[in-house]
Specification:
With 264 residues, this protein is an alpha/beta fold. 51% of the residues lie in helices and 13% in strands. Helix 6 packs across helix 11, helix 7 runs antiparallel to helix 8 and helix 9 crosses helix 10.
């Protein structure tokens, strides 16, 4: 699919906005001449055929679809009249109602891609307000499928929860990897050997899960049934509170997402 719509990315000079811009251009979804991007102080060297501006309203005026890729704290002072255009927010916490009121459009979408958008492997949940059209949904799906995979969810609370779960991107696997590496180094392995071993485990697991698309519970049970060293490790981690720690962390992230929206 390709679209003839002009897409504007507020925060296109930033990391996530730039990553989304790269995927929609590289996939052929949008001609770079139909791409408008805003930046703060120094114009990036990317997308020389696209329109760059420091004026968010100028970007909105020349765009059919406006994607907000800025921090929630930077959104609060943003005065941008979208005049009934499609607005897609990739900000954590900001509610559909607040977006619609601020930007003067009922065609608003909340979406939460993650860091893997840079390599086309993001998972992006999203939800639209009641005023979005079938064509709007097609545009949203097309944009985020260039970044990886996407799902439309039923409730804003689903987005708040997934902000902590899938929005984390590589953070949680990296947290596990860091703990494994520290243990390996404590036990005498050279740091470089430990790093290569751990990174290979994490990256290999991701590729295997993607290829097989199995339920994680089934994979864990397979190792438990084998009753080998991995089963012993899994049982030890669970006995130490692994499952409870993960649930507590996701609960904290959910509460944070809700509180960020309440401030708006």
């Amino acid at each position: 699919m390709s679209v003839s719509l002009r897409i504007g990315i507020v925060g296109g000079g930033g990391w996530l906005g730039g990553a989304i811009a790269s995927t929609i251009v590289d996939s052929g979804l949008v001609d770079p001449r139909n791409l408008c991007l805003s930046y703060r102080s120094r114009q990036p060297d990317r997308f020389p055929d696209s329109f760059w501006t420091t004026d968010s309203q100028e970007l909105a005026d020349c765009s059919d679809v406006i994607l907000l890729s800025i921090r929630p704290d930077d959104w609060h002072p943003l005065a941008l009249d979208a005049s009934d255009k499609l607005v897609i927010s990739v900000m954590a916490g900001i509610r559909l109602g607040a977006l619609a009121e601020r930007h003067k459009t009922g065609r608003v979408v909340r979406a939460l891609p993650n860091a893997a958008a840079e390599v086309g492997k993001s998972y992006t949940p999203w939800i639209g307000a009641t005023d979005i059209t079938r064509d709007d949904r097609d545009v949203v799906r097309a944009i985020f499928e260039t970044c990886g995979s996407e799902d439309e969810v039923a409730r804003e609370s689903d987005i708040d929860y997934l902000t902590g779960l899938s929005g984390s991107g590589p953070a949680f696997p990296a947290l596990l990897a860091a703990a494994m590496m520290r243990d390996a180094v404590i036990r005498g392995l050279p740091a470089e050997v430990a790093r290569r071993a751990v990174n290979a485990v994490i990256s290999g697991a991701g590729r295997l899960l993607e290829r097989r698309n199995e339920c994680p519970d089934d994979i864990v049970q397979t190792f438990l049934d084998y009753r080998g060293t991995t089963a012993a490790a899994i049982e030890g981690m669970r006995a130490a509170g692994f499952d409870a720690a993960v649930a507590e962390g996701l609960s904290a992230a959910f509460k944070k997402s809700v509180s960020m929206g309440a401030v708006s």
